[in-house]
Specification:
CATH class: Alpha Beta
Strand order of the largest sheet: 1-4-5-6-7-8-9
CATH topology: TIM Barrel
Largest sheet: 7 strands, parallel
Strand content: 5-15%
Number of strands: 9
CATH architecture: Alpha-Beta Barrel
Distance between the termini: 30 Å
Structural class: alpha/beta
Amino acid sequence: MSVLKNDLLIRALLRKEVERTPMWIMRQAGRYLPEYRATRKRAGNFLTLCKTPELACEVTMQPLDRYGFDAAILFSDILTIPDALGLGLQFSEGEGPSFKSPITSMADVERITNLSPVNELGYVTDAVSLIRKELDGRVPLIGFSGSPWTLATYMVEGKGSKEFHKVKGMLYKEPETLEKLLDVLSKSVTDYLVAQISAGAQTVMIFDTWGGVLSKECYLKYSLSPMQKIVRELKKITSAKDVPIVLFTKGGGNWLNEMAATGCDALGLDWTTEIDAARAQVGDKVALQGNLDPCVLYGSDQIIRKEVKKVLHKFGKGSGHVLNLGHGIQQYVDPNKVTVLVEAVKEFSPAYH
């Protein structure tokens, strides 16, 4: 495969020297882009878009062509693993994802225990290979998965939730069922990320969207411990030695030291965590990615530039920072505001290196 022409992201994640701060944004191929909406309309529905490698490649490339980000991120969904485990993923317009067969008991967990979801996820690895070929070394490709805890929340709740009463009820009433489910998911996520790396992903990110709804004790046991197991397994694999691993727990600012101790290379930060405080906590153990509030992009050009300056200043001099939003870009953002963001990072960040 082609040599990387722009390796800023990989160098920053490994805390090596860079000329400027690299940047990409979560959900950069998304509904805020008119070209994405056109491709999604052509696909007919979201799942077809995810499951057709050529279309997934097309939408992955769209924000790169428009903005010149320093990374591409595989276009997929965190719920591919539960879908491949036979839970029957479906998307309803305006209601989000749901499962036809949620996990309600140990018997349900036993039913999926010996399944190998990677066998059903060839469309994802095909997309990774196709995107790498299309990129031709332009920028690195990020692979990703949902964390075991986050996947478990959807699988037990059967859909998105605000109260998480089913999965938290299982945590306290039937902890052995939840632990068994998390074991199954830890292996599935590990195998899935290994497959993405083998297909060409150059860095991987684990999205722990719902870890922040747990108490510290429960977070360490049910969210961080499975992620640590995945990091440890990935680091054993020869092909993954130079593939940086990023952990992102939304609302996880209180547990950065524990996250940094997993052996990962970088931590994603949401906008509720001050990046200077985070850097003071973790020192040079890991790189940091983040942490601009996505809603900054509703502001004026001057506000966007000011907020970029603020994040760069708070992180300070030196490598180990990837500028990103603190969560996914929102669908109502004006695409031109992203241009302002990218240009501001490229203009202001060289002074810090």
